[in-house]
Amino acid sequence: MASSLVPEKIIKEGLPDSILETMVPQAEVQRVIKPAPPRYRNEIAKYIIRRSADCKLCGKCAEICPQGVHVLKPGYKYFAAPHQNVCIGPACKDTGHYCVDLCPNKALRMVENPMMKVLGDYRWTPDLILATWKMAETGAPPPPEYGYEYECGNSGGGFDRIRFKFPARPPVELSPDDIDTSLELNRRNDGRPQIKIDVPWYGGGMSYGSVSNVTQLSKASAAVAFNTFTCTGEGGYMERLRPYDDHTITQVATGLFGVREETIQRVRIVEFKYAQGAKPGLGGHLLADKVTPSVARMRETVTGISLFSPFPFHSVYSIEDHKKHMDWIKHINRHALVSAKVSTPSDVDMVAVGSYSAGAHIVHLDGGYGGTGAAPDIAKKNIAMPIEYAIIKVHDFLTREGVRDRITLIASGGLRNAHDIAKAIALGADGVVVGTGELVALGCLRCARCESGRGCPRGIATTDAELQGQYTVEWGSQRIINLYNAWRIELVEILRRFGMRRVSELRGRTDLLMHLDYSNDTEQAR
Amino acid sequence: MNRETIGQLLLSRKRLAGELQPAATERKVEEEGGCGVVGLCCSEPVAARHIYEPSRQMHNRGNGKGGGIAALGFIPEQLGVSREVLDKCYMIHVAFLDTGIRPQLEDKYIKPNFNVATTQKLETLDDWTTVDGLEAKPPDVYRYFVRVKGDVLNSFVKANGFTGLTRDEARAEFVNQNSIRLNQEYYASLGEQKAFVMSEGKNIMILKVVGYAEAIVKYYKIEELCAHVWIAHQRFPTKGRVWHPGGAHPFGGINAALVHNGDFANYHSVCEYLAERHIYPQFLTDTEVSILMFDLLERTYHYPLEYIIEALAPTSELDFDRLPKDKQALYRAVQAAHIHGSPDGPWFFIIARSLPQKGAFQLMGITDTAMLRPQVFAFCDGEVQVGLIASEKQAIDATLLSLHADDSRICPVADRYWNARGGSHTDGGAFIFDLEPDKSGRLRISCSDKFGTPVPMPTGGEACDFTAAVAEVAGHIRDGLKQSFEKRSAADIFEYLSGGIRRWSFAEIRAALAYLIELAKEPKGSSAAIEALTLLNDRRYPVGMKKRNHILYLVRSALNAVFSGLTKFDGNGPAEGGYRLIDHGTRGLLRPPQNNETTLVIDAMGFDPEGEGCDATLLMDAYLKGWRRFISFNCIGQRFIGCGLGPDSDGVTIEVYDSSGDYLASGIDGMTITVHGNAQDQVGQIIKRGKLVIHGDVGQTFMYGAKGGSIYVMGNAAGRPLINSVGRPRVVINGTCLDFLGESFMAGDVLNGGGFVILNGVTFDDEGNLIALKEPYPGSNLFSLASGGAIYIRDPRQQVVWQQLNGCGFYRMADEDWELILPYLEENERLFGIKVEELLTVDGKRLNPSEVYRKVAPVRIAALGKKIEGAVVTETDLLTVSTGE
User: Does A288 sit within 8 Å of B614, measured CB to CB?
Assistant: First the structure.
């Protein structure tokens, strides 16, 4: 696999021995797609199949089902519980495999799982969650027979009302292998390394504290496989992340928790988190119950005390402070690229161009659709400009100011799938940051209880020793690798339909988009 | 001013706003930016080139897209006018972006309204591209000395019913309204802007360019133009493409110029407030809005300066409660009327204005209530007086050095440097330098705070004549010094010299120091001389009636001479004393230490303030090559000293002299850094481990997010020290802080390895004796929402009250607490000569530690978490909590 790692000598030049001595061999993770079945035998499924006492155990259902829902294990007298999560439901009628109809004893009954009414939310619909799980399981887009509507959610706004205007047939016929999805992160031409990632996205910052170390390591491992990045979040740099230094972004956030010179010097990208789109005007917060002894140790704070990061940086109240702040990081690490993560206030265009003039390589706009359950609803739902407006505003302003090609514009905040990613790029971003999607791949239900008590019932956003032991890094990383692979396949397909060889060609092509509410275009059949 | 007259003015402006085409009420988007500012006033007129150096040094606070200067109080001959014209006429500067419209503009706005005493085109260089730091052709500027025509004024007064205004007030209003009309037609209304009024007032000029401020001095050829008051501004507009300087600072009102560092959060609401009074911005920056506010409060409401400052930066919280009752009533009224026009968010104004009736001038700095922008004031008293205000101390130092080169009566070290405490009952967050003529008509400067309380200056008035040749050292001093030098013991030399300084004349002191520089060249002499001079620089000792700042300047010059005399990097010969000197010219020769070399001495003059070419980068390279001991001198505000050396830098020492810059010692992990003077802003961020000693004051957000280290500060910390600190920082601050000390402090259990701050609340008097400050902690917020660690505050009179605490309480000072902090106080004694015994002595009585120190530590509040095992403190020790229980 092509890797664009900076040659070793460049990275090492200008770093103190005390850093070099602690450098560890970097983990190698192959981009291999393997099935990563759900953690639970009876994973939540769209359809529920009930078998009545009328079943005569004839075995007809197991025989006809192409999905392998019905299992009669050899040596067993009765059927095991059906694998409902692979059942495609009444769609089987079309192919003549509908077990309910075909059961000689009419012993089978199928209903839509009532959980579909409570799973997820308008933005992350049950279909989208199940489809993401399927992608994380298989490494490919879910087969159409499942009938998942996963290209959009049902929020009635944002990316859910934006569609692509695909041409009837591609202007150029391209094979998927001809299509390049890589992204250059350093456009300043300032002597700092060129860093190219293989897919136009990287993983968002989630601290140890907000999520478990297994979650962090799974994300990091997948980042290596796709030659992209993950981010530490604000809670410091776990020692166990060291084998992933080359693919880790150190976040410097307003609480400065766990930020030390060495954590800045060991990485290739440093991110300033000025604000989060899900809660602009608020710093990060971690409630008391999640501040376990190990979290407190890493942040050097007091166990069991809620941690509220300030907003904004106490040392940055204007643009020249911002520049000084970046100069500081650039001084400590002469090879790192610097990213500024900001939310989307109405003057986001000024913020972006200001970040450019202060020396940032990446400006990262974080919109308000994202955020885990920890972000307060009052903030998530009411503050900041929708990301789809912010991207265009910034892209256009940077273009007008003549600096668009000297800075990398990254968008994030509620980008759930390859279609959202492609839409963000078509609106003007170079690439995106994903967050919640990765957690869904790990089994997140979007129950939005991330912050309360000891955290996540599914052991993802938790620091509880027992809860976080629910899955292994190996499984977690495979799930995210599979998801990334499925996304990449879909992104390549979108580019193929437009006849584009490179993802960069899609950037800013708002002419290829329609807005169902504001443009006169009508949605075409796929 | 009475209500009726105010009504007349407001009505008049309403009519004006109604007539403007296109409508002035149309709201546009504000432009944003940041900046660096400096203001200077002098009892003698000083030349523009003195604003050049500080402007140049603040480049990194601008980006070359907007610079401006203002000057007030000229010499009439230099402007080619009579004293009478200068004093009596309005001096209007109009910037022409399109020169072709000048006749038309003059026919419409100048000639019909004014009797023009003289019209001058400001001279310029022929080719603007030859001036470094200019990004676009500066406008052609015309200066008009004018008087409002009598009949024009009469009809203006009549039409507006200005019965309550004096003739002068009516003239000012006319000039202002005329400028508004002019700007609306030629600037605000057009897609392409053609001309605008830069300044309007008596004895005042504003010039601005797209470029750096100092380029103005070159382009308009005003190096030699003298004025009593100067302000300069480097702008960092966020937007990249700027072709004309309309948005640059300073902005002018009648007789006033204002520069601003910061960014309002409530630009729109201030605009609304102004709109209710029929005032509309034309240049779309918050700076313009600021001067409009100032002008409104001054010329419409006729407030005295104190009320104006209160309206801009209201007094709040505990500070309000501490005001006298009558003042509270007054301020409540001011706030009730004007709070919506009060700028919110980070801002710092420097305002210069002329007061033509009195022949006086004022230079003032006003900070916002939360002190979110950096600000330093300084005053240099003497035959020639200088008052200074700047974003950074290094800009003040550069100005004084530049002035000293021209006029050696001005000492490069000021008598006093200080910060303002925003919205406070102590100083009101503002200081005003008043330049008023004395009986002989000569301008003299006095400095006072918002309440009119004079800023105390050192008592000693005996000045050094820096121009005199250095005399031969007297025999007895020569012998005495030589003898004390025998053992190469810095302490002996210090003792001899500091003892002598009190008795000797300045001439003798200079001769003695010159002789010491000679002695430094003897074998093993340099380190003894450096250490002894460093003690003379750092320590407080009695100086008799001599000016302490003059002695400090002599000591620092001697130190500089010794450093400069060390073996250069390109020089041959042994590195005497293990020192090797590197400077900007020889930086390329850096190599690992050889032979007996131990200490790299860096002459920081000429290095960039940051980036590849900065001295901190050189220091980092030298560290990588094996150097471990460093001396950095001649610093002119360069940043990041000590940063980037990574973990485990134990054994590294850095001694920093002169004007060190921001972010010093940020992130250090093991090394020792000593600052021989004041330190700046953002010092010691995320510091992990090691030792930092500051022989002076330290600036804003000191030790933000710090994790550890032993830190000693001889003087004060400015606003927001130790915010969000975790781990185990151990800090001694001998002075006090402006406010917000230790907010969200999270540094563990103080008696089990956690962190703490010792706040002594003391200072030195003119004789070098330790005295308690008026109050140990004046701020309204101490240790707010802290969840770990503790503050030990020296407060024998129990002056700190529970209202200053939020989420913490006073605890009994136990023996364990004293045992914990004593070693740090002993080290503090060793470093600064502040004796533990003296700290424990109150009114001549030696008290127990628990009677002198109070412990402030967190209480568990429900909002932050449940009670957890091993809680920070046991509740039984709790004396008072922040709710007053």
Answer: no
A206 with A268, same domain: the answer is yes
Q: Closest Cα to residue B509, out of B544, B470, B535?
A: B470
Query: Are residues A94 and A187 both part of a single domain?
Result: no
Q: Which CATH architecture has domain B3-449?
A: 4-Layer Sandwich (3.60)
Q: A203: distance to nearest CA of chain B, Å? A: 25
- The total of structural domains in chain A comes to 2
Per DSSP, the residues of B599-634 read EEEEE-TT-BSSSTTBHHHHHHHHHHTT--EEEEEE
ipTM associated with this complex: 0.91
A15: which chain B residues are within 8 Å (Cβ-Cβ)?
A: 624, 646
To probe the interface with B, which of A192, A301, A309, A355 has the most B CB atoms within 10 Å?
Answer: A301
Cα–Cα distance measured from residue A237 to residue A247, given in angstroms and rounded to the nearest whole number: 13
Asked whether the beta carbons of B403 and B42 are under 8 A apart, the reply is: yes
**A297 and A440 both lie in a single domain:** yes
Which among A262, A291, A353 has CB closest to B647?
A262
Side-chain half-sphere CA neighbours of B680 within 13 A: 29
| B 593-632 near A (Cβ less than 8 A) | 610-611, 614, 616-617, 620-621, 623-624
**Domain coordinates in residue numbering, chain B:** 3-449, 475-563, 696-885
Report CB contact under 8 Å: A305, B640: no
Q: A18: nearest CA in chain B?
A: B647
**CA nearest A257 in B: which residue?**
B705
The pLDDT of residue A523: 63
SS3 B156: helix
Q: What is the pLDDT of residues B854-871, one digit of tens each?
A: 999 998 665 555 544 333
Return d(Cα B790, Cα B500) in angstroms, integer.
43
Euclidean distance between CA atoms A352 and A387, whole angstroms = 14
| Amino acid at site B145 | F
3-state helix, strand, coil in chain A (%, to 5): 35, 15, 50
Query: How far apart are the C-alpha atoms of A323 and A311, rounded to whole Å?
Result: 18
Terminal CA-CA length for chain B:
48
Do A67 and A21 belong together in one domain? no
Give the structural domain span for A323.
Answer: 8-31+174-515
CA geometry: angle A49, A52, A58, nearest 5 deg: 90
User: Would A106 be classed as within a structural domain?
Assistant: yes
Q: How far, in Å, CA of B347 to CA of B350, rounded?
A: 10
Whether the bond between A104 and the residue before it is cis, its omega within 30 degrees of 0, is no
pLDDT tens per residue, range A243-275: 999 999 999 999 999 999 999 999 999 999 998
Interface of B with A in 46-75 (CB under 8 A): 60-63
Residue A18 in any domain: the answer is yes
* Rounded Cα–Cα distance for residues A243 and A221 (Å): 9
B749 CB-near residues (< 8 Å, 6+ apart): A302, B788, B870, B872
Tell me the average pLDDT of chain B.
92
CA distance B306 to B311: 9
Conformation bin of residue B724: beta by default, left when phi > 0, alpha when psi is -120 to 50: left
A200 and A320 belong to one structural domain? yes
B328: pLDDT strictly greater than 80? yes
CATH number at residue A74: 3.30.70.20
Query: Reduced to 3 DSSP states, what percent helix, strand and coil does chain B have, rounded to the nearest 5?
Result: 35, 25, 40
With CB atoms and an 8 Å threshold, state whether B640 touches A331: yes
Instruction: Label residue B24 by pLDDT band (50, 70, 90).
Output: low
CA distance B233 to B255: 18
Task: Using DSSP, state whether B17 is helix, strand or coil.
Answer: helix
CA angle B115, B121, B123 (to 5 degrees): 150
Rounded Cα–Cα distance for residues A373 and A285 (Å): 12
